[in-house]
From TrEMBL:
Annotated source species: Novosphingobium endophyticum
Domain FAD-binding span(s) in chain numbering: 53-304
Pfam families per the UniProt record, alphabetical: FAD_binding_3, Rng_hyd_C
Known cofactor(s): FAD
Name of the featured protein: Monooxygenase
InterPro entries, per the entry: FAD-bd (IPR002938), FAD/NAD-bd_sf (IPR036188), RIFMO-like (IPR050641)
Gene3D superfamilies (alphabetical): 3.40.30.120, D-Amino Acid Oxidase, subunit A, domain 2, FAD/NAD(P)-binding domain
GO molecular function, one term: FAD binding
Keywords carried by this UniProt record: FAD, Flavoprotein, Monooxygenase, Oxidoreductase
Length: 492
């Protein structure tokens, strides 16, 4: 969401969300929708819209993907020199020294499109991936799932449990996850299909949803589908002028909600680097860094999502868990404790979102040792490669709102004016846009950033930091831009 804020689209996303700001962003585990609560995770995924958190400028949003896409389509339509073509299929592509030619087909008619670069963000069955002979590695389709979308008029008002963004239902005959999906009383229902269990027909789906609800509630099934969980990573993200992004190069279970974040993260990382090259100030090494940075992150996220997926409602079921006598209540309490211990990692893994750190040739490491990895503990710091720490300034504005659209130099109280000027001049000679943000009198920033000067990339990750210039400025800006430096590195 911080990127949507940077693009001026955060408010549009908030308006598109089917849930009002006051709606609790909680996850509830219960025996059935009209059953007994087992456990609860408040502010899941840090989506509380009414809480201002020091660590980020925008809370997470619980919103259907098609609504996010609608916001993006509307924004893209306003951009000059941009065309949106739907209903086309990639037939083949070829590359030369100057660009890529993609042959696409619609209604039997082929058209050639030429560009300097091509990005295949065409999903898990990516044709672009096939065309560049990249392959997925890992576990494919290791668990099947059934999904239904149903309309249940008035269900939200009738559910005796507290409001939540999703309800994980633990019972012996219909373990599942369900929750409000959109306006018009739309709900989703998802459950695993164990072994060779066939996909449910409408009658069986209706029976299962009814059991999961646990009460006589009218509903209509609008759509059903099956999907498979994967744990896959492409062996490469690039072949010359063709790149892969999103599901085209990594697939993982949805548990943890990392999918959209990963796709946006790929697009942001690759997008600013392509823009730098096209605008003449980025080099080939910068494009190489896309795979180095994002593939390592994807590997970690895939393992996190798979870990979350290894403990779902089917694994929590116990015999005699739904009765009214004290022994059944004791079993439910035990299940609740197990859920609280086992699922907190999934719903409160803030470090998987904010704490991922890049390592590549365009990051100037400062030798500081990274803390032990903990998915639930995010410790903001400005070690190069990590996300620039967020901070609410005294005037109520977000620090991020002061960053430029390209590179930013954050200069604090102790930054020497002549050194700032030398960095500005070096960036200007290279043609690298650089916004200088001078902020004084805020000790919290010095604590967060640990240096008087910090170079922050367009994706809000730190490229370099120091109290004073520890490299020749020309070398430094060339290094972080992926351009061969005009002069060798020297310390000053």
């Amino acid at each position: 969401m911080a990127h949507f804020r940077r693009w001026g689209l955060a408010e549009q996303v908030r308006r598109a969300s089917p849930l009002p700001d006051s709606y609790p962003r909680d996850i509830i585990f219960a025996t059935r929708l009209f059953g007994q609560e087992l456990a609860r995770f408040q502010n899941a995924f840090f989506g509380d819209q009414q809480l201002r958190d020091e660590r980020f400028p925008e809370a997470a949003q619980w919103i259907p993907q098609y609504k996010i896409e609608a916001v993006l389509r509307e924004a893209i339509a306003t951009k000059p020199r941009t065309s949106l073509l739907f209903g086309h299929r990639l037939c083949r592509l070829r590359q030369d020294e100057d660009g890529v030619v993609a042959t696409v087909e619609r209604d039997g008619e082929e058209v050639e499109l030429r560009a300097r670069y091509l990005v295949g963000a065409d999903g898990g069955r990516s044709e672009v991936r096939t065309q560049i002979d990249a392959r997925m590695e890992g576990d494919a389709a290791y668990m099947r799932n059934f999904l239904a979308v149903y309309r249940a008029p008035g269900l939200s008002q009738r559910v005796p449990l507290s409001r939540a963004i999703s309800y994980w239902l633990v019972n012996p005959d219909a373990p599942a996850v369900t929750g409000p999906m959109d306006e018009d009383d739309l709900w989703f229902f998802s459950t695993q299909l164990k072994g060779d269990t066939p996909a449910y027909d409408l009658d069986e789906a209706r029976r299962r949803i009814g059991l999961a609800i646990g009460a006589d509630v009218p509903f209509d099934i609008l759509e059903t589908d099956t999907w498979s969980a994967h744990r896959l990573l492409a062996n490469r993200y690039r072949l010359k002028r063709v790149f892969l992004a999103g599901d085209a190069c990594h697939l993982h279970p949805p548990m943890g909600g990392y999918g959209m974040n990963m796709g946006i993260g790929d697009a942001v990382d690759l997008g600013w680097k392509l823009a730098a090259v096209l605008n003449g100030w980025g080099g080939e090494v910068l494009l190489d860094s896309y795979e180095a940075e994002r593939r390592a992150v994807a590997r970690l996220v895939i393992e996190e999502a798979a870990e979350n997926y290894s403990f779902v409602t089917h694994h929590m079921v116990r015999e005699a868990m739904e009765g009214d006598d004290p022994s059944c209540a004791a079993i439910r309490n035990e299940i609740g404790r197990s859920i609280t211990a086992g699922k907190a990692r999934e719903f409160h893994a803030i470090n998987v979102v904010l704490g991922l750190r890049y390592e590549s040739q365009v990051i100037v490491a400062d030798g500081m040792v990274a803390p032990t990895w903990d998915p639930m503990v995010y410790l903001p710091d400005a070690r190069p490669g990590g996300l620039a720490p967020h901070h609410w300034l005294a005037d109520g504005s977000s620090l991020y709102d002061h960053f430029g659209t390209d590179f930013t130099l954050l200069a604090l109280d102790g930054a020497q004016a002549d050194e700032v000027a030398r960095l500005e001049a070096a960036a200007d000679r290279l043609g690298m846009p650089l916004t200088v943000v001078r902020l004084a009198g805020d000790p919290a920033l010095r604590t967060l950033y640990g240096a008087e000067m910090t170079l922050i990339r367009p994706d809000q990750h730190v490229a370099w930091r120091a109290d004073c210039l520890d490299h020749d400025p020309a070398y430094l800006v060339a290094r972080i831009s992926g351009v061969e430096p005009a002069i060798p590195e020297t310390s000053t």
